[in-house]
Amino acid sequence: MSKQVPLFIGGEFVQSKTDQWIPVTNPATQEVIAQVPCTTDEEMEAAIASAAKTFETWKETPISERARIMLRYQALLKEHQEEIATILCEETGKTFEDGMGDVWRGIEVVEHACNIASLSMGETVENVARKIDSYSYTQPLGVCVGITPFNFPAMIPLWMFPLAIACGNTFILKPSEQDPNTPTRLVELFQQAGAPEGVLQVVHGGKEQVDKLLTHPVTQAISFVGSVAVGEHIYKTGTDHLKRVQAFAGAKNHMVIMPDAQKNHLINNLVGASVGAGGQRCMAISVAVFVGESRKWIPELKEALSKVRPGVWNDKEAAYGPQINPAAKDRILSFIEAGKKEGATCELDGSNCTVEGYPDGNWVGPTLFTNVTTDMSIYKEEIFGPVLCCIEADTIEEAIELINECPYGNGTSIFTASGAAARKFQHEIKVGQVGINVPVPVPLPFFSFTGWRKSFYGDQHAYGKQAIKFYTETKTVTARWFEDDINTGANMTINLK
């Protein structure tokens, strides 16, 4: 029998008593490599109770002690980065280089959490009125929850629980049921770093377990990354139950190519941004907008894409791995067929992609469409695969209008040699994360991940200063002390014992 993934409750790994298990499969072979439990109601209550009880002591832990745990944790993550990446690749199918990047981007957020003392500082104003001072400071919320997706099983959990716990909260993680071994290893190292029992719990399952966390009276804040449909459900259900919610949802990211862009640099970046990670990332470029004469470069883009091939995780020549499961592959293939029927020109078709020695893998090859219009499903929907749609525009104004009419606002980029064009684009575009000659503009952790519109539901975004605000409450004190209360008597005694 394949490995049974444990729960993590009260500082201990425990085997679930459930009779419902979800298989974890290798996406290159369909081999079942583990079984994930659907956590029972009693186990869910135990995890929530443990988190609530631990919060009462953890919130009183000096902030410097919390920071030292994060310092030890980031050191352990760096020491074990290759090991974590290997676990990650074996269950997601990502290439090893991509897996290493997944882990490293999470480590960067943990490094940011090491600065929690500076990040948590409040504000002070003396003499807001005569001999009255005001000052504010932050306090943790309580039990926080993270619900994470399959595509970044190291990075996205590390977006969440280190910062939340460093702020003085306790945390319950519900990772994707499709690749649970990676977060399990992250938790083992967190425990090794000296995290007290009960500050972090891990439960597994599906909608039933998620809804329990969304509606339970003890939980205070919910962080989520995933699809639009689930994101909407998370946000509505959580806020209906008076929780704080940050829900990162879908995307349709455009790259604008100006005629003055450096062609070779542009093509290399566009290839990687569109089919890298098999297109299974919310910041992938899925629409290329060629402005003016830049449309002449499409044949060269096609040639570059035709040289890209997927493969297994330890194939150093592979550009990306398989799709996460057969259903994801079938969904992508259905979009490719729909694009053909709707009148787009399929310049490069990855539908029948095969990888030698792995006939059962969820393979989809690089796919390129031209003559795409905004009413086509391949333009309107997030395909989440290695499919790039090309649209042509006559002016930068037309390109900006096109992007601003798209309901999503996660990321976008422009490639140009013109500072004026770049400035116009970054100012007028209604998208939260903008790249200028940078294809995938994911901010480093001292900023925040700032998707807009239908790509995000909530107020405060992930990591950076906004995450500190999300995971804490601000308390403001206004104080006055009367000088005639000062005791200057000579008979005052002070007990120094």
Automatic annotation (TrEMBL):
Keywords: NAD, Oxidoreductase. InterPro entries: Ald_DH/histidinol_DH (IPR016161), Ald_DH_C (IPR016163), Ald_DH_N (IPR016162), Aldehyde_DH_dom (IPR015590), MeMal-semiAld_DH (IPR010061). One of its GO terms (molecular function) is methylmalonate-semialdehyde dehydrogenase (acylating, NAD) activity. GO terms for biological process: L-valine catabolic process; thymine catabolic process. Residues 13-477 form the Aldehyde dehydrogenase domain. Gene3D superfamilies: Aldehyde Dehydrogenase, Chain A, domain 1, Aldehyde Dehydrogenase, Chain A, domain 2. The keyword Oxidoreductase applies. The keyword NAD applies. Pfam families: Aldedh (PF00171). Its EC number is 1.2.1.27. It comes from the Bacteria. Belongs to the aldehyde dehydrogenase family. This is methylmalonate-semialdehyde dehydrogenase (CoA acylating). It comes from Motiliproteus coralliicola.
